[in-house]
Design goal:
The chain is an alpha/beta fold. The chain has eleven helices and 15 strands.
């Protein structure tokens, strides 16, 4: 997340083996520095090197809006505000974020879509194919039932029958996960007493519970302490950021990613709880076409 790429990171970016990266460096074909016996590759120079290698007609693309769309995450939202990146946010769920990414009305989208054997990658490919978008891990997060302050008698999904529950919008991946969990317990939303309006973000859900408007909701453990809520953990999910590759190297996105990797952000994650940042920055997909 710093100013230099490692050999592995450059290999992932170029979709080649690490051995080939060493060969490119040895032949002087790729910009690099060597420090304490380790190869490092300046991000800005790599971007310029790639642009210089282009062939064929150049078609000017309109600038991507400086917007991060998709799923709301309390830590990412805080980082966007505090980092000074200049990026704005528009949260309306993982699936809405995918649409905005595909139509280029956002340069990045947060998502946590459960798939067979993993998270997010297949949904991203189904939406934009092999377009030049990078899927970067931000964190693993605890998800489960957030409970109104002092509420007892709820130990799992089956205990929600007949209770007042705050739901999310259909474009939220958490709502689709919640529907699946209800089905596994022989329930549907008709067996609950949902609020008339869904919560559009994770924080709206927590606030509704804090204010006593509902008894439970399917939300993030990170918000339990912040709003004095009970929490029944039901599992862990991976939260990723999908970013158009041409925006990845721009100063706003790089500033955000550097801040996410900072001690200040790690301290905030510890304060909130429910986060595992050990995989921050891991590349889970790198679209091929440019």
């Amino acid at each position: 997340m710093q100013e230099y790429l490692t050999t592995r990171e450059l290999a992932d970016l170029l979709r080649i083996g690490e051995r080939k990266v060493y060969d490119l460096a040895a032949s002087g074909e790729v910009p690099h520095v060597r420090a304490v016996g380790k190869l490092l590759f300046p991000r800005a120079e790599i971007a310029a090197w790639l642009n210089a290698s282009r062939s064929g007609p150049r078609v000017a693309e309109p600038p991507l809006p400086a917007i991060v769309a998709g799923s709301h995450d309390p830590l990412l939202d805080w980082a966007l505000r505090v980092s000074g990146s200049g990026l704005a946010s528009y949260y309306d769920g993982s699936y809405d974020g995918l649409e905005r990414l595909a139509e280029r009305s956002a340069q990045a989208a947060g998502m946590h879509i459960r798939e067979d054997g993993g998270w997010n990658r297949q949904a991203l490919c189904d939406s934009i194919g092999q377009a030049p978008v990078v899927l970067i891990e931000i964190a693993h997060r605890q998800r489960g039932l957030l409970l109104a302050p002092g509420l007892g008698g709820v130990a799992g999904i089956a205990d929600l029958k007949g209770r007042r529950v705050v739901l999310r919008q259909d474009s939220a991946a958490s709502q689709r996960q919640f529907d699946d969990l209800l089905a596994r317990h022989g329930l549907t939303c008709d067996d609950l007493r949902p609020l008339a309006a869904p919560a559009r973000t994770e924080e709206e859900l927590a606030i509704a519970l804090h204010e006593g408007k509902a008894e439970a909701g399917f939300g993030l453990g990170a918000l339990a302490g912040l709003y004095g809520l009970g929490f029944v953990a039901l599992g862990e999910e991976r939260f990723d950021l999908a970013v158009w590759r041409r925006a990845w190297f721009d100063p706003p996105m790089q500033k955000l990613m550097r801040f996410l990797a900072s001690p200040a952000c790690a301290a905030r994650a510890d304060e909130l709880g429910g986060y595992d940042l050990s995989g921050l920055g891991r590349v889970h997909h790198n679209g091929a076409s440019g």
